[in-house]
Model the fold of this input.
Amino acid sequence: MIIGKRNIMKYTNYSGGAIGADTEFEIEGEKYNVKTVAFSFNDHISYSKNKKNLNKLELIEGFEHVGKANLTLNRNVSNLSTYVKNLLSRNWFQVKNSEAIFAIGKLKLDNIVDGGTGWAVQMGIDNGKKVYVFDQNKCNWYKYDYELSKFEKINYIPPLTEKFAGIGSREINENGKKAIKDLFLANFT
Done:
């Protein structure tokens, strides 16, 4: 299917399959025939019908990137359960497979995203990906500026890449849901 100049059959959303923003990205993407790959692991409750389980070696690879992200985030990862480590590790595969990260959440500082979403965002930054965050409390999109080492407000809806990570808060609000709808509308109509 081609809408405008974009062949949307080529678009893939790399997700964590969680409730909230991940689910909203998947539901909205389906309307435009955007494929979703939702990374998961054994014993993980995924809300996606497009679940892809990671193996133990992949989860170990992912946690190496969690460690690197933690150099900036400075969170306590020493006492995490295996389950939580696997949740964080799965974020790496969203980032690894994407060209850009599109996150719905809340900016904690001008260079850090709050909560679990912050892990994938930081991994994206650490790996030089394009990173966009919609702060659902401020109702604005922000783009990470590598020269300034911080997020800068943008006054446009960012362009989706063919391989993207559509991620974000489990506690998505109506502003976040609208931002996802508007993101797809702006890119495919």
